[in-house]
Each structure stands twice: as structure tokens, then as C-alpha cells.
# Entry
Amino acid sequence: MNIKIGTRGSKLALAQTKSVVERLKTVAPEITTEICVIKTSGDIMQDVSLLNIGGQGVFVKEIEDALIAGSIDLAVHSMKDVPGETPEELRFAAILQREDVRDILVSRGNVKLEFMPRGAKIGTGSLRRGAQIQMMLPDVMIVPLRGNIDTRLKKIETENLAGVILAAAGMKRLGYVQKITQYLPVELMLPAVGQGALGLQIRKTDSDLAASLAKLDHAPTTAEITAERSYLRTLGGGCRLPIAALSRLEGQRLSLEGLVATPDGSGAVRDKVWGTLEEAEVMGKKLAETIMEKGGKRFLNLSC
# Structure
């Protein structure tokens, strides 16, 4: 069986896709692959804020369209880019074992976040990151960033930034660990829904391919992502609001922690629930409802 794999064309996206190809060879050697680079609207419109071109989903829509049309057979997505709602014709055949979920700081002079001077300019393209930085350090200035990891790192110099906030997973997958100044603990910087996880998306009708890809699925990660995405959907994932979540398997129990904040970090609601792997979907709904009851609904009403 030969399959066409759709992916974005960034260095990170290609590295992630090639790692999937290598894993697939070990579990399904009868499958041959061809990588197809697809430009998404998020990749094309680099000089426009993500919020102004549709927010979440701008890095996956064209790839999903190609999958539905039959131009490709498999899509490799960073799960943090995938909206809460996905096309009816598609499904995730596997979620791979998660990488490091944390965010990291790369700074000028290796200065850690807690030692940043007042007025320091911190670059990030994420409302979630910006809001949580402002909650910690209200005196720093958040500078919106777009572009791939290399572009963002260069902007430390070209934009005279004190530092940039990025995902640890991407830095590790590109071999950039030595550039990291500081790992930000999830207690201070709760990650994005799905951060660090790769999802393999196919058409629902491709049962043979689904059976092969299922061998790559990591059940604990799948449960974690299910809980987080249920939380996102229940809140209304299309809202232009800082939303964060992290689910973790701790022993035999699954935890799910979530946050909703105002864009400037002046207000936030954070809470946590526990359950079993089988309760992942229900946990997401329960946490979202709890956070809305505790004040998150007011933030959502202001932004949606």
C-alpha cells in the first residue's frame, strides 16, 4: 500500500512527519509513503495576526480539505493546531506519545524570566502565553510574533527582544535544546490544548490504513488529548481568548487542569478535575462547566 502524507512545509513540520514515516516503517513495513507539502493559510499570511485570519484552524484547514478530496491519505498535525471541531468525514487514527508539554524561554544573555527588567519586550504569537506572562510579570511588554521557530529566534536580535516564548516540544524535535534558557513550569505557564502531541488524521472510510496506524497510538496520550479537546469544545474553542489545559496520567488516575484568562492577564479562572482514562471526554465537559461557573463565562461572553 502506498500512501500520500500531507504536512505543512516548515522545518519542524517536515521533521515531525519524517519521524512518523520512520515509526510507520517499523509497524507496517508493507506501507510505502510519499510526503506532500501543503501550504496553509497560516503559513501564507505571515504578516497578519492569527486572530485576523481565523485563529485556530489556519494551519490545518487546507490539509484537511486535501484529505477529504483524496489528494492525500494521511495528515500529520500538531494537535495544538487542531480546532475543537473537525470535519465529519475525518478521524484521528492515532495520537503518538507526547513530547515535553512545557513552554520555554530563549532570551538575550540567558536572562531568566523572573529577572527580566521592567519594560522588557517578550515575543510570542500566543494569547495564552502572553496572558500568563502578564499574570507573572505585569511590567513586561508582550510583542506579537509570527513565523517558524528559526524566524522567531532571529527576532530576538532584529526586533530587539529580551526573549521569546516557544514550545519545548518543537525545540527538542529540531535539536535546539542547547538554545533554551529556561523551561517554564506548568504551574506558571499552563500549555495549549494538545501541546506536544502529534495526531495522525485519516478519512473515516479508510479502515485498512486505520488498522495499521492504530499500532502507533499511545493510549495514555490519547486519553489526555481527548480530555483537553473536550474541554476546549465545551468552552467554545473558536473564542478569541487565552485558553489553556493539561491532562496527565498520574498513576491510575487522569487529571485535567484548565485555565481561561483575559488577554491582558488581569483576570483568570483555573481549576482541576480527576477521573479515569475512560472518563476523559466527561472530564473535559465537567472542567469547562466548572470554570464557566466560577467566572470564566463572563470572559467568554466578552470575547465570543
Remarks:
- The chain has a mean pLDDT of 92.
- The longest strand covers residues 253-261.
- The domain at 218-304 is CATH 3.30.160.40 (Double Stranded RNA Binding Domain).
